[in-house]
Design a protein that fits this description.
single chain, about 200 residues, mainly beta, 10-stranded parallel β-sheet, 19 strands, about 0% helix, about 50% strand
Length: about 200
């Protein structure tokens, strides 16, 4: 998906990558704008929903109402999300959520901006699976502008043991958090969709 402008939609999920078994090649979203969509606040209200590997590059997600901008996980093999030069701003909802089922999921988020969203910048939620033992989640945050910083991230049920055996998890979260600016950026003209950083912005 490249050079797209996606707006004024009301369906639950806009972009769906259900390829659980792709290791050698990632799906891609490049030079794309996703804005002014009303997707609902439930778990299935997502701008991007992925099971397999995906690269999101130079993409702007703004002024939407959804559950999550990017939702990934529930992959029994492997899921890697790479986000580079992505801006997620002025949305009603969470920015990124991982809900791994089993295996090891990885997120590498760099050179991106997260600001003025009503939910979390990053949320990890283990939901439980029949007989699965989660390997865990590796998250790398590098060189981003993050309003609220580390305090605007949450992990729900990291060591969940379900009351209904054989549901169980043994989960870990490995977080790398380096060279991130924790503050509110100033954009050139966000009112009219120009989310370039202004020269006066500390980010």
């Amino acid at each position: 998906l490249k050079n797209c402008d996606i707006y004024n939609n009301t369906n639950n999920t806009l972009i769906w990558n259900a390829d659980r078994n792709s290791f050698a090649k990632s799906a891609q979203i490049i030079n794309t704008k996703i804005h002014h969509n009303n997707l609902g606040s439930a778990l299935d209200g997502n701008a991007v929903f992925v099971y397999g590997p995906i690269d999101i590059i130079n993409t702007l997600i703004y002024k939407n109402s959804f559950g999550h901008a990017v939702y990934y996980g529930s992959n029994p093999n492997y899921a890697m999300v790479k986000m580079n030069f992505v801006t997620i701003a002025n949305n009603i909802g969470n920015a990124v959520i991982s809900s791994p089922n089993s295996g090891t999921n990885t997120a590498v988020i760099s050179n991106s901006i997260f600001t003025d969203n009503t939910g979390y910048n990053f949320k990890v939620q283990y939901v439980g699976g029949l007989g699965n033992i989660y390997d865990g989640l590796r998250i790398q945050w590098r060189n981003n502008v993050i309003q609220g910083g580390y305090d605007n991230m949450t992990i729900i049920n990291p060591d969940l043991v379900s009351p209904n055996p054989p549901y169980r998890t043994k989960a870990y979260v490995e977080l790398t958090y380096l060279n991130n600016f924790e503050g509110r950026p100033i954009f050139v003209d966000s009112t009219n969709g120009d989310y370039r950083l202004a020269p006066s912005s500390l980010g």
